[in-house]
Structures are given as C-alpha cells and as structure tokens.
Amino acid sequence: MATRVDLEQETIVEIRYPKKYKVYLLNDDYTSMDFVVDILISIFHKSLSDAQQTMLEIHKKNRGLCGIYTHEIAETKVMQVHKKAKESGFPLKAVMEEE
Q: Can you tell me the distance from the alpha carbon of 91 to that of 69, in angstroms, rounded to the nearest whole number?
C-alpha cells in the first residue's frame, strides 16, 4: 500500500504601505491671504484657525505644509489648487514631495 504525502507550500507575503507625499502651497506676491485660507478649507479640509495658521506659515516661510497623502490623492490636491487658482486669476502654486 502506497502512502501519499501532500506538502504545504509556505508563502511569505510582505506588505508594504504606499509611499506618502507632502503637499505644500508656495508663497507668491499676488495671491490674497483670504484666497489661500479658502483653498486650505475647501481642498485640504482644514478648520478656519488651522487654515489661518498654515497661511501665515506660507507667508513667513515661503511655503507651508497642507497635508500628507498617498501619491494619487496628493496629485489630485495639487491639480485642484492649480485649477481653482487659475479660475480665480491667482498664480498660487502647490507642489508635492515624497516623504
């Protein structure tokens, strides 16, 4: 009588979290502070006080951190800023950098 041996194959799965990207707004001499606050509230979902603090950081340090996101979300946020700024006649720019 023959015996049958089944071998289990062990698979090791390595889980990697997606890279994160920081989104910054850049200071310029033409975009109004009120418009920057509006962008921070409407696109980045900041409270009024957080938006005002970030706007002052942008004004003083030439850029301010708006949030940290996965690549696709960060890219979308940057595009939304550029679209809304262009529609409103402001040169406001947003950039993303890998964390």
A: 23
